């Protein structure tokens, strides 16, 4: 068997509420308030390439883990669902550190918009980092892609969402932001923090300050043991 070289063309780019890896849910669909856009790039920004796609509620997005390419791949991984203490093979996980850094997400397709030479797919329930290169799109087929009898291995059920509270100052800033932008920031913050984005080795810590970049704000929060407390919102500028 020969290993013939091959390459993929980038067909699009993601514009997302997630401006850094920290805070992104580990699976799509967990944070329903997450919004993103998939901008198709020339020569793939032609309406005839997505003709008929509007009839599907969800799509598969094939993408590249572009921020972890330089870190290389790892033969074994410590999955967060196993507390970060047990190793399993990389092919038994959805880790970003893969021999070929390709990812696959099923996301809800809200609409397809075109104009001014651009073709954009409006997405919801996404787990995609801002700036992610996209290499393919396929329609999601419920009769073939949803298998209720399938086994979930070491992750059979979604993680239980934790309670998220806000200081008065943080809530006031969130509501002001929502009024100014029309973005549902409060619900987004609750869902992002509720699934505990911390790495496994920090899961037992309390009162340690963290920051999660969502849209153009940095959400400052702490773990209080049985819940998370949003302390403040700060401007965020991506470097």
Your description of this structure?
The chain is mainly beta and 239 residues long. It folds into 2 domains: 134 residues, Elongation Factor Tu (Ef-tu), domain 3; 73 residues, YaeB-like fold (2-Layer Sandwich). 12% of the residues lie in helices and 32% in strands. The chain has 3 helices and 12 strands, in the order E-E-E-E-E-E-E-E-H-E-H-H-E-E-E. The strands form 3 sheets. Strands 1-2-7-6-3-8 form a 6-stranded antiparallel β-barrel. Strands 9-12-11-10 form a 4-stranded mixed β-sheet. Strand 10 and strand 11 form a beta hairpin. The longest helix is centred in the C-terminal third of the chain and has 14 residues.
Summarize the entry for a quick read:
By secondary structure, this protein is mainly beta.
CATH topology of the largest domain: Elongation Factor Tu (Ef-tu), domain 3
Mean pLDDT: 92
What would CATH call the architecture of the largest domain? Beta Barrel
CATH homologous superfamily label of the largest domain: YaeB-like
Task: Report the span from N to C terminus.
Answer: 44 Å
In angstroms, what is the radius of gyration? 19 Å
Number of separate strands: 12
What's the level 1 CATH class of the largest domain?
Mainly Beta
Percent helix among the residues? 10-25%
Number of helices: 3
Beta content comes to 25-35%
The helix/strand class is mainly beta
Global geometry: globular
Structurally, the number of domains stands at 2
Low-confidence stretches: none
Q: Could you describe the largest sheet, including whether it forms a barrel?
A: 6 strands, antiparallel, barrel
Strand order of the largest sheet: 1-2-7-6-3-8
């Amino acid at each position: 068997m020969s290993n013939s070289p091959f390459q993929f063309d980038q067909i699009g780019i993601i514009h997302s509420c997630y401006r850094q890896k920290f805070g992104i849910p580990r699976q799509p669909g967990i944070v329903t308030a997450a919004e993103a856009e998939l901008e198709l790039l020339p020569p793939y920004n032609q309406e005839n390439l997505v003709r008929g796609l509007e009839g599907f509620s969800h799509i598969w997005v094939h993408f590249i883990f572009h921020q972890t390419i330089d870190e290389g791949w790892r033969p074994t991984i410590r999955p967060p669902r196993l507390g970060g203490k047990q190793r399993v093979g990389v092919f038994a996980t959805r880790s970003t550190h893969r021999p070929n850094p390709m990812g696959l997400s099923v996301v809800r397709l809200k609409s397809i918009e075109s104009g001014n030479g651009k073709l954009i797919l409006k997405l919801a329930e996404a787990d995609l980092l801002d700036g992610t290169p996209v290499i393919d799109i396929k329609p999601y087929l419920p009769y073939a892609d949803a298998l209720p009898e399938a086994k979930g291995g070491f992750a059979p059920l979604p993680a239980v969402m934790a309670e998220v509270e806000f200081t008065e100052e943080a809530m006031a800033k969130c509501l002001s932001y929502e009024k100014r932008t029309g973005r549902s920031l409060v619900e987004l913050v609750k869902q992002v923090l509720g699934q505990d984005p911390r790495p496994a080795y920090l899961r037992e810590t309390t009162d340690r300050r963290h920051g999660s970049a969502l849209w153009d704000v940095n959400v400052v929060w702490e773990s209080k043991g049985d819940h998370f407390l949003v302390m403040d919102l700060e401007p965020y500028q991506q470097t």
